[in-house]
Protein backbone atom coordinates (compact mmCIF):
# COMPACT_ATOMS: atom_id res chain seq x y z
CA UNK A 1 0.00 0.00 0.00
CA UNK A 2 2.83 2.35 0.82
CA UNK A 3 4.46 1.62 -2.51
CA UNK A 4 1.21 2.38 -4.32
CA UNK A 5 0.76 5.63 -2.41
CA UNK A 6 4.37 6.68 -3.17
CA UNK A 7 3.93 5.85 -6.84
CA UNK A 8 0.72 7.87 -7.01
CA UNK A 9 2.37 10.82 -5.25
CA UNK A 10 5.35 10.68 -7.63
CA UNK A 11 3.02 10.55 -10.59
CA UNK A 12 1.15 13.65 -9.37
CA UNK A 13 4.40 15.56 -8.75
CA UNK A 14 5.75 14.57 -12.15
CA UNK A 15 2.54 15.60 -13.84
CA UNK A 16 2.63 19.01 -12.16
CA UNK A 17 6.24 19.51 -13.16
CA UNK A 18 5.43 18.47 -16.72
CA UNK A 19 2.48 20.88 -16.78
CA UNK A 20 4.63 23.74 -15.45
CA UNK A 21 7.24 23.14 -18.18
CA UNK A 22 4.55 23.06 -20.84
CA UNK A 23 2.99 26.27 -19.53
CA UNK A 24 6.39 27.96 -19.44
CA UNK A 25 7.07 26.80 -22.98
CA UNK A 26 3.70 28.07 -24.14
CA UNK A 27 4.25 31.42 -22.47
CA UNK A 28 7.68 31.65 -24.07
CA UNK A 29 6.07 30.98 -27.41
CA UNK A 30 3.65 33.85 -26.83
CA UNK A 31 6.45 36.44 -26.35
CA UNK A 32 6.57 39.14 -29.00
CA UNK A 33 9.08 38.43 -31.76
CA UNK A 34 12.17 40.63 -32.01
CA UNK A 35 11.42 44.06 -33.55
CA UNK A 36 13.55 45.21 -36.47
CA UNK A 37 15.20 48.60 -35.86
CA UNK A 38 18.11 50.64 -37.17
CA UNK A 39 20.87 51.86 -34.89
CA UNK A 40 23.88 54.12 -34.72
CA UNK A 41 26.90 54.13 -32.45
CA UNK A 42 27.02 57.35 -30.44
CA UNK A 43 30.18 59.41 -30.99
CA UNK A 44 31.55 62.79 -29.97
CA UNK A 45 31.75 65.62 -32.48
CA UNK A 46 33.22 69.10 -32.27
CA UNK A 47 30.54 71.74 -32.68
CA UNK A 48 31.39 75.32 -33.49
CA UNK A 49 28.96 77.70 -31.81
CA UNK A 50 27.50 80.06 -34.35
CA UNK A 51 24.93 82.77 -34.82
CA UNK A 52 22.30 82.18 -37.49
CA UNK A 53 20.30 84.89 -39.22
CA UNK A 54 18.43 85.65 -42.40
CA UNK A 55 19.02 88.70 -44.53
CA UNK A 56 18.71 90.36 -47.90
CA UNK A 57 21.28 91.08 -50.57
CA UNK A 58 21.79 94.74 -51.42
CA UNK A 59 23.98 96.40 -54.02
CA UNK A 60 26.80 98.68 -52.90
CA UNK A 61 25.31 101.26 -55.26
CA UNK A 62 21.90 100.94 -56.84
CA UNK A 63 19.47 103.35 -58.44
CA UNK A 64 16.34 103.34 -60.58
CA UNK A 65 17.24 105.93 -63.21
CA UNK A 66 14.56 108.36 -64.34
CA UNK A 67 14.25 111.70 -66.12
CA UNK A 68 14.20 114.98 -64.20
CA UNK A 69 12.17 116.74 -66.89
CA UNK A 70 9.39 115.70 -69.24
CA UNK A 71 10.11 114.92 -72.87
CA UNK A 72 9.91 112.52 -75.78
CA UNK A 73 12.50 109.75 -76.03
CA UNK A 74 14.71 110.64 -78.99
CA UNK A 75 17.38 107.92 -78.71
CA UNK A 76 18.14 104.89 -76.54
CA UNK A 77 21.87 104.25 -76.22
CA UNK A 78 21.97 101.04 -74.17
CA UNK A 79 20.98 97.36 -74.22
CA UNK A 80 19.10 95.71 -71.36
CA UNK A 81 21.46 93.88 -69.02
CA UNK A 82 24.59 95.57 -70.35
CA UNK A 83 27.49 96.80 -68.25
CA UNK A 84 28.16 100.53 -68.47
CA UNK A 85 30.80 102.90 -67.18
CA UNK A 86 30.20 106.04 -65.19
CA UNK A 87 29.02 108.90 -67.41
CA UNK A 88 27.84 106.67 -70.27
CA UNK A 89 24.92 108.20 -72.21
CA UNK A 90 21.83 106.02 -71.82
CA UNK A 91 18.80 107.95 -73.12
CA UNK A 92 18.34 111.24 -75.02
CA UNK A 93 15.13 113.25 -74.92
CA UNK A 94 14.03 115.66 -77.63
CA UNK A 95 15.81 118.94 -76.80
CA UNK A 96 15.74 121.03 -80.04
CA UNK A 97 13.62 123.80 -78.51
CA UNK A 98 15.79 123.98 -75.38
CA UNK A 99 18.98 124.10 -77.44
CA UNK A 100 17.59 126.93 -79.57
CA UNK A 101 16.66 128.88 -76.45
CA UNK A 102 20.16 128.24 -75.11
CA UNK A 103 21.71 129.74 -78.24
CA UNK A 104 19.50 132.82 -77.83
CA UNK A 105 20.63 133.25 -74.25
CA UNK A 106 24.26 132.84 -75.28
CA UNK A 107 23.81 135.68 -77.80
CA UNK A 108 22.34 137.86 -75.06
CA UNK A 109 25.28 136.96 -72.83
CA UNK A 110 27.75 137.88 -75.56
CA UNK A 111 26.08 141.27 -76.04
CA UNK A 112 26.12 141.90 -72.30
CA UNK A 113 29.82 141.02 -72.23
CA UNK A 114 30.54 143.52 -75.05
CA UNK A 115 28.60 146.30 -73.32
CA UNK A 116 30.37 145.68 -70.04
CA UNK A 117 33.83 145.55 -71.68
CA UNK A 118 33.08 148.80 -73.55
CA UNK A 119 31.80 150.61 -70.47
CA UNK A 120 34.74 149.36 -68.40
CA UNK A 121 37.13 150.90 -70.98
CA UNK A 122 35.19 154.18 -71.07
CA UNK A 123 35.03 154.30 -67.28
CA UNK A 124 38.78 154.73 -67.16
CA UNK A 125 38.41 158.07 -69.02
CA UNK A 126 35.26 159.02 -67.11
CA UNK A 127 33.23 158.82 -70.34
CA UNK A 128 30.52 156.82 -68.51
CA UNK A 129 29.37 156.82 -64.94
CA UNK A 130 30.19 154.13 -62.40
CA UNK A 131 26.47 153.37 -62.12
CA UNK A 132 26.27 152.56 -65.84
CA UNK A 133 29.25 150.21 -65.60
CA UNK A 134 27.75 148.47 -62.53
CA UNK A 135 24.41 148.08 -64.31
CA UNK A 136 26.14 146.50 -67.32
CA UNK A 137 28.04 144.15 -64.98
CA UNK A 138 24.80 143.05 -63.31
CA UNK A 139 23.21 142.51 -66.73
CA UNK A 140 26.19 140.35 -67.75
CA UNK A 141 25.95 138.21 -64.60
CA UNK A 142 22.21 137.76 -65.11
CA UNK A 143 22.80 136.66 -68.71
CA UNK A 144 25.49 134.20 -67.57
CA UNK A 145 23.12 132.73 -64.96
CA UNK A 146 20.36 132.31 -67.55
CA UNK A 147 22.78 130.52 -69.88
CA UNK A 148 23.90 128.19 -67.06
CA UNK A 149 20.28 127.48 -66.13
CA UNK A 150 19.37 126.65 -69.73
CA UNK A 151 22.47 124.49 -70.10
CA UNK A 152 21.32 122.50 -67.06
CA UNK A 153 17.88 122.03 -68.63
CA UNK A 154 19.50 120.79 -71.83
CA UNK A 155 21.68 118.44 -69.77
CA UNK A 156 18.57 117.00 -68.10
CA UNK A 157 17.48 115.79 -71.53
CA UNK A 158 20.48 113.42 -71.56
CA UNK A 159 20.25 110.63 -68.95
CA UNK A 160 23.71 109.31 -68.06
CA UNK A 161 24.99 106.56 -65.78
CA UNK A 162 25.86 108.10 -62.37
CA UNK A 163 28.26 105.22 -61.62
CA UNK A 164 29.62 102.07 -63.24
CA UNK A 165 27.47 98.98 -62.99
CA UNK A 166 25.08 96.59 -64.65
CA UNK A 167 21.82 97.75 -66.20
CA UNK A 168 18.49 96.04 -65.78
CA UNK A 169 15.61 95.78 -68.27
CA UNK A 170 14.62 98.87 -70.27
CA UNK A 171 11.29 100.38 -69.21
CA UNK A 172 10.79 102.98 -71.99
CA UNK A 173 10.50 102.90 -75.77
CA UNK A 174 11.65 105.14 -78.58
CA UNK A 175 9.23 108.01 -79.19
CA UNK A 176 7.51 107.58 -75.82
CA UNK A 177 6.57 110.68 -73.84
CA UNK A 178 7.82 110.40 -70.29
CA UNK A 179 7.01 112.58 -67.31
CA UNK A 180 9.51 113.54 -64.60
CA UNK A 181 10.28 110.53 -62.40
CA UNK A 182 9.23 107.91 -64.95
CA UNK A 183 11.48 104.83 -64.43
CA UNK A 184 13.81 104.22 -67.35
CA UNK A 185 16.15 101.44 -66.19
CA UNK A 186 17.75 100.18 -62.99
CA UNK A 187 21.52 100.38 -62.50
CA UNK A 188 23.26 98.20 -59.90
CA UNK A 189 26.92 97.95 -58.90
CA UNK A 190 27.29 94.25 -58.05
CA UNK A 191 30.92 93.82 -57.01
CA UNK A 192 31.36 94.01 -54.10
CA UNK A 193 27.87 93.48 -52.69
CA UNK A 194 26.22 93.77 -49.28
CA UNK A 195 24.09 91.41 -47.19
CA UNK A 196 22.01 93.11 -44.50
CA UNK A 197 20.68 91.02 -41.61
CA UNK A 198 19.48 91.36 -38.02
CA UNK A 199 20.80 89.82 -34.79
CA UNK A 200 19.40 89.99 -31.23
CA UNK A 201 21.03 92.52 -28.95
CA UNK A 202 22.54 89.67 -26.89
CA UNK A 203 24.82 88.91 -29.85
CA UNK A 204 26.47 92.33 -29.84
CA UNK A 205 29.19 91.12 -27.45
CA UNK A 206 30.09 88.27 -29.85
CA UNK A 207 30.47 90.16 -33.13
CA UNK A 208 32.78 92.88 -34.39
CA UNK A 209 33.66 94.66 -37.60
CA UNK A 210 35.92 92.52 -39.80
CA UNK A 211 34.61 89.20 -38.44
CA UNK A 212 34.14 86.41 -40.99
CA UNK A 213 30.62 85.70 -42.24
CA UNK A 214 29.20 82.89 -44.39
CA UNK A 215 26.11 83.28 -46.53
CA UNK A 216 24.01 80.74 -48.39
CA UNK A 217 21.58 81.34 -51.25
CA UNK A 218 18.97 78.75 -52.20
CA UNK A 219 19.70 79.53 -55.86
CA UNK A 220 23.14 77.95 -55.39
CA UNK A 221 22.65 75.26 -52.69
CA UNK A 222 26.19 73.86 -53.12
CA UNK A 223 27.96 77.23 -52.92
CA UNK A 224 28.86 79.06 -49.73
CA UNK A 225 29.85 82.72 -49.98
CA UNK A 226 32.34 84.19 -47.51
CA UNK A 227 32.56 87.80 -46.47
CA UNK A 228 33.23 90.07 -43.51
CA UNK A 229 31.17 92.28 -41.25
CA UNK A 230 31.39 95.80 -42.66
CA UNK A 231 29.27 97.76 -40.20
CA UNK A 232 27.08 97.34 -37.10
CA UNK A 233 24.20 99.74 -36.70
CA UNK A 234 24.58 102.21 -33.85
CA UNK A 235 20.88 101.87 -33.00
CA UNK A 236 18.99 98.87 -31.60
CA UNK A 237 15.38 98.57 -32.75
CA UNK A 238 13.21 99.33 -29.74
CA UNK A 239 10.36 97.11 -30.96
CA UNK A 240 12.28 93.92 -31.72
CA UNK A 241 15.50 94.58 -29.72
CA UNK A 242 17.45 93.53 -32.81
CA UNK A 243 20.42 95.29 -34.34
CA UNK A 244 21.09 95.57 -38.08
CA UNK A 245 24.42 94.27 -39.35
CA UNK A 246 25.90 94.69 -42.82
CA UNK A 247 28.43 92.28 -44.32
CA UNK A 248 30.38 92.79 -47.53
CA UNK A 249 31.05 90.01 -50.05
CA UNK A 250 33.20 89.79 -53.15
CA UNK A 251 30.95 89.09 -56.13
CA UNK A 252 33.14 88.85 -59.25
CA UNK A 253 30.81 86.37 -60.96
CA UNK A 254 27.76 88.49 -60.06
CA UNK A 255 25.91 85.47 -58.71
CA UNK A 256 24.50 87.55 -55.88
CA UNK A 257 21.82 89.99 -57.00
CA UNK A 258 20.08 92.68 -54.98
CA UNK A 259 16.88 91.49 -53.34
CA UNK A 260 17.96 87.87 -52.91
CA UNK A 261 17.14 86.05 -49.67
CA UNK A 262 20.24 84.87 -47.79
CA UNK A 263 20.94 82.74 -44.72
CA UNK A 264 23.87 83.99 -42.66
CA UNK A 265 26.19 82.12 -40.28
CA UNK A 266 28.80 83.62 -37.96
CA UNK A 267 31.18 81.41 -35.96
CA UNK A 268 31.68 82.62 -32.40
CA UNK A 269 33.72 81.25 -29.51
CA UNK A 270 35.76 78.02 -29.39
CA UNK A 271 34.48 74.64 -30.67
CA UNK A 272 32.70 72.45 -28.09
CA UNK A 273 32.45 68.66 -28.06
CA UNK A 274 29.05 66.96 -27.82
CA UNK A 275 27.66 63.45 -28.20
CA UNK A 276 25.50 63.80 -31.30
CA UNK A 277 22.62 61.66 -32.53
CA UNK A 278 20.19 61.85 -35.45
CA UNK A 279 17.00 63.74 -34.69
CA UNK A 280 15.06 60.55 -35.36
CA UNK A 281 16.77 58.83 -32.41
CA UNK A 282 15.07 61.09 -29.87
CA UNK A 283 11.61 59.99 -28.77
CA UNK A 284 10.01 63.21 -27.54
CA UNK A 285 7.45 62.93 -24.72
CA UNK A 286 5.70 65.40 -22.47
CA UNK A 287 7.32 63.75 -19.45
CA UNK A 288 10.83 63.73 -20.90
CA UNK A 289 12.91 62.89 -23.95
CA UNK A 290 14.10 59.31 -24.23
CA UNK A 291 16.28 57.10 -26.41
CA UNK A 292 16.52 53.34 -26.63
CA UNK A 293 19.95 51.83 -26.06
CA UNK A 294 20.56 48.44 -27.69
CA UNK A 295 22.20 46.16 -25.10
CA UNK A 296 23.44 42.63 -25.76
CA UNK A 297 21.25 39.85 -24.39
CA UNK A 298 21.48 36.04 -24.47
CA UNK A 299 23.34 34.17 -27.19
CA UNK A 300 20.90 32.31 -29.47
CA UNK A 301 23.42 29.52 -29.95
CA UNK A 302 23.74 30.14 -33.66
CA UNK A 303 26.51 32.68 -33.42
CA UNK A 304 24.01 35.55 -33.15
CA UNK A 305 23.51 37.48 -29.97
CA UNK A 306 20.10 38.79 -29.09
CA UNK A 307 19.73 42.51 -28.36
CA UNK A 308 17.40 44.13 -25.85
CA UNK A 309 16.15 47.72 -25.86
CA UNK A 310 16.79 49.73 -22.73
CA UNK A 311 14.93 52.98 -22.23
CA UNK A 312 17.09 55.96 -21.17
CA UNK A 313 16.06 59.54 -20.41
CA UNK A 314 18.27 62.17 -22.04
CA UNK A 315 18.84 65.90 -21.94
CA UNK A 316 19.15 67.44 -25.40
CA UNK A 317 20.85 70.66 -26.51
CA UNK A 318 21.03 72.60 -29.71
CA UNK A 319 20.36 71.10 -33.13
CA UNK A 320 22.35 71.32 -36.35
CA UNK A 321 20.65 70.06 -39.49
CA UNK A 322 19.69 66.41 -38.91
CA UNK A 323 21.79 66.23 -35.74
CA UNK A 324 20.99 66.96 -32.11
CA UNK A 325 23.44 67.37 -29.24
CA UNK A 326 22.86 65.11 -26.22
CA UNK A 327 24.08 66.75 -23.02
CA UNK A 328 23.30 63.89 -20.63
CA UNK A 329 22.14 60.25 -20.71
CA UNK A 330 24.24 58.84 -23.57
CA UNK A 331 27.93 57.98 -23.59
CA UNK A 332 30.21 57.61 -26.64
CA UNK A 333 30.06 54.03 -27.89
CA UNK A 334 26.44 53.39 -26.89
CA UNK A 335 24.39 51.74 -29.62
CA UNK A 336 21.26 53.89 -30.04
CA UNK A 337 18.07 52.98 -31.87
CA UNK A 338 17.42 55.53 -34.62
CA UNK A 339 14.22 54.15 -36.21
CA UNK A 340 11.38 51.93 -35.01
CA UNK A 341 11.11 53.25 -31.45
CA UNK A 342 7.31 53.51 -31.64
CA UNK A 343 7.01 49.71 -31.36
CA UNK A 344 9.45 49.32 -28.48
CA UNK A 345 9.19 49.36 -24.72
CA UNK A 346 11.76 48.85 -22.01
CA UNK A 347 13.12 45.30 -22.38
CA UNK A 348 11.88 44.66 -25.93
CA UNK A 349 13.88 42.21 -27.98
CA UNK A 350 15.24 43.86 -31.12
CA UNK A 351 16.84 42.88 -34.38
CA UNK A 352 19.29 45.35 -35.90
CA UNK A 353 19.09 46.15 -39.63
CA UNK A 354 21.11 49.15 -40.85
CA UNK A 355 20.67 48.66 -44.57
CA UNK A 356 18.83 51.99 -44.87
CA UNK A 357 20.81 54.77 -43.13
CA UNK A 358 18.94 57.53 -41.30
CA UNK A 359 19.60 61.22 -42.13
CA UNK A 360 22.58 62.48 -40.16
CA UNK A 361 23.78 65.54 -42.09
CA UNK A 362 24.65 68.76 -40.24
CA UNK A 363 23.86 70.77 -43.38
CA UNK A 364 21.05 69.01 -45.24
CA UNK A 365 20.02 70.24 -48.65
CA UNK A 366 16.44 70.51 -49.82
CA UNK A 367 15.73 68.21 -52.76
CA UNK A 368 12.99 68.83 -55.30
CA UNK A 369 12.63 65.16 -56.11
Q: Would you give an account of this structure?
A:
The chain is of the alpha+beta class and 369 residues long. Among the domains are: 32-47 and 271-352, conserved putative lor/sdh protein from methanococcus maripaludis s2 fold (Beta Barrel), CATH 2.40.420; 51-60 and 186-267, Beta Barrel (Elongation Factor Tu (Ef-tu), domain 3); 95-156, Helix Hairpins. It is built from 3 helices and 20 strands. It has helices at residues 2-30, 96-123, 130-156, and strands at residues 35-41, 43-47, 50-66, 71-76, 83-84, 89-93, 158-160, 165-167, 177-178, 183-200, 212-217, 220-236, 242-249, 261-267, 272-278, 289-299, 305-320, 323-328, 335-339, 349-352. Strands 1, 2, 15, 16, 17, 18, 19 and 20 form an 8-stranded mixed sheet that branches. A hairpin with a 5-residue loop joins strand 16 and strand 17 (305-320).
Amino acid sequence: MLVLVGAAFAAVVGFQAFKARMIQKAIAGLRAPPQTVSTITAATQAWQKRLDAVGSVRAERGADLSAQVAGIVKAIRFQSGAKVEKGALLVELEAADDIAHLESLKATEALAQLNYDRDSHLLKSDAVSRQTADTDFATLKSAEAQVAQQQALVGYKSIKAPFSGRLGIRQVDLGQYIAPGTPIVTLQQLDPIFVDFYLPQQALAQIKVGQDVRAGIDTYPDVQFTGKILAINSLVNTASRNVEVRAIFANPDEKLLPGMFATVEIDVGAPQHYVTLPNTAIYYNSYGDIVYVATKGQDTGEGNRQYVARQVFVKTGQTRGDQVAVLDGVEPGDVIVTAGQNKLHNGSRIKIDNKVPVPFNPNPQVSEE
